[in-house]
Amino acid sequence: VNEESRLIARIARAIPSRPGGPRGGGLLVGVGDDAAVFRPRPGRDLVLSSDSFLEGVHFLADVHPPESAGYKSLVRAASDLAAMGAEPRFFLLNLALPARRTGKWLDAFLVGMARAARRCRLVLAGGDTSRHPTVAVSITVLGEMKASLVLTRSAARPGDRIYLSGVPGRAQLGLELIRRGLHRKSEWKPLVRPHLFPEPRLALGAWLARHRLASSMIDTSDGLSTDLSHLCESSRVGAVLWRDKIPRPQVPTELRRRGPNPELNPEFLALHGGEDYELLFTVPRPRAGKIPPQFQGVPLTAIGEITRRRRLRILDLSGRVTLLQPRGWDHFEK
Amino acid sequence: VNEESRLIARIARAIPSRPGGPRGGGLLVGVGDDAAVFRPRPGRDLVLSSDSFLEGVHFLADVHPPESAGYKSLVRAASDLAAMGAEPRFFLLNLALPARRTGKWLDAFLVGMARAARRCRLVLAGGDTSRHPTVAVSITVLGEMKASLVLTRSAARPGDRIYLSGVPGRAQLGLELIRRGLHRKSEWKPLVRPHLFPEPRLALGAWLARHRLASSMIDTSDGLSTDLSHLCESSRVGAVLWRDKIPRPQVPTELRRRGPNPELNPEFLALHGGEDYELLFTVPRPRAGKIPPQFQGVPLTAIGEITRRRRLRILDLSGRVTLLQPRGWDHFEK
């Protein structure tokens, strides 16, 4: 047995995984062969997404706890399934890391990933490992859903209501605290949590798809303004957001007293903060009455409307309309 | 449109890809949404594999032509489909690269990848891009095959004949030429080719599965000795190889005259050289007569037999038996 086989066995022990076989829930071949093999249930569409999670880009190995890196790398990919309305099934893990990260760091990383796997009901079905100077994770998730229920980015129509789950900007606020070295203050730990361990909205996404309530959906991994612009571009529409309706994170007064800082402004955080993994979805007017004020404890808020005019705008209570510039996260502009 | 969207559009133009839709061959949603969506054909099993291809580990950006990096990163993943007997369908690409590689280098990389995609009949269905100090590629391939025909590593039985496609060690010989700076000599270019542009054995793998000829299969990405040991471990068996039957690469006499070098020994190359992506498969005795001497011009050679005794051994013409140590590529032992 070589080093790689040993490492794969260690990963497969730490994370919910199945070697495949009759009781594998459709998984005929799992970890340990050239590829995973599964038998889809009849009448299902399959949903497939792949995401990188790279040291120095998506996390800082010396700042972020390894549990968070393991957790977020999987949640980030699983959130793409939520955004289509799919139910998670299996995932593949490509893990590259240096020798000094193969001990305790890897154990903690796997604890975080196992937690995300249980939460998302994802089972490890394969992948590979490599030695590499920095940690580089790539994760592929596979989900399933009843045929023809998938929610894309491209079917929003003028007049549709725009909804958002949760409170945007909380993950960014957590990151700003870390950037300022304030994340170890026990009183602020709860504020850092949404950045380190965001909750994917899988149940909500699947529920919206199953009941055909939404016309389009995207997750807010890049920030509300940027992901709204993605959705509008794909749908060839525009949007107007209602300024007073947009939920905002609570920024502690002690933090705000440290001086004016646009990056800590609650509205700025809500509009442009990334990595919330909330769901942004559109609902045709006649079905808007069926959207409850919250789903499993998570608030669902109508924050605006899709427009024919292909611009992103914000409407004040006073009736003033301003253009909204997407200022969220661009994975390639750094 | 942000940087990342522009880059994704450029990739999708360069590589066979489909945005999804009615004519997408089962692909309902392709590049550009949160995830790819496809509708499997009834009565098919799905085969899924994911492979990293990292600068400094799997290729050297300053030595290997970008066309080769793009080509090999996809062929490496597609070869896992060949090894199960699956027909390739779609792939996802996670591409991380530094700014200085986004110009001509990326164009050439995509030319190589497009060539591999056409050869493997793989269509790009999604992925992501990131800025990163080094090139890091991760590819997920999805294949399909008739239900219950999949060929795993774990079903070889004592008495089965061991077959190998092609000539092992050719890719390693090409790498050795590059290591010695001899790859630019025009007479030796054909010898470097199997290292830069290996041929995946997709048609052979699918044919063996379709006709239920093989009992188990693996591709020789890590080298014959190492991959045979993987297959035997998974199947809980051993093997004896017939020394005189193992095909060997031709090493030019001029190269051999440069002095004795075990790494350039034809038998050593054949047994331990990596990255050939040939197929190593086992055939139950009664079906061995149905294996032709070649398939589509590629030689198929019986090189040994599976044994109950869980050891890897080599049998000389003289009748002498020696132990075979797996000495191929271990992605984690460097």
Layout of SSEs?
2 copies of one chain form a homodimer.
Chain A: H1 3-14, E1 27-29, E2 36-38, E3 44-54, H2 66-82, E4 87-97, H3 104-120, E5 123-131, E6 136-146, E7 161-165, H4 170-179, H5 189-196, H6 202-210, E8 216-219, H7 224-235, E9 238-242, H8 253-256, H9 266-272, E10 279-283, E11 294-295, E12 298-307, E13 312-315, E14 321-323
Parallel strand pairs in A: 4-5, 9-13
Antiparallel strand pairs in A: 1-2, 3-6, 4-6, 7-10, 7-12, 8-10, 9-12, 11-12, 13-14
Written description of the protein model:
The structure is a homodimer of 334-residue chains. In chain A, strands 7, 8, 9, 10, 11, 12, 13 and 14 form an 8-stranded mixed beta sheet that branches. The first copy, chain A, has a 4-stranded mixed beta sheet with strand order 3-6-4-5. The first copy, chain A, has 334 residues and is an alpha+beta fold. The first copy, chain A, starts with a helix and ends in an 11-residue tail after the last strand.
Rg of chain A, Cα atoms, Å = 21 Å
Order of helices and strands of chain A: HEEEHEHEEEHHHEHEHHEEEEE
Biggest sheet overview of chain A = 8 strands, mixed
Distance between the termini of chain A: 42 Å
Q: Kindly state the number of beta strands of chain A.
A: 14
Give the amount of beta strand of chain A, in percent: 25-35%
Task: Report low-confidence residues of chain A grouped into runs of 5 or more.
Answer: none
Helix/strand-derived category of chain A reads: alpha+beta
Report the oligomer: homodimer
Number of H/I helices of chain A:
9
Could you tell me which chain pair has the largest interface and how many residues each side has? A-B, 75 and 75 residues
Shape of chain A, please?
globular
Helix content of chain A: 25-40%
Average pLDDT confidence of chain A is 92
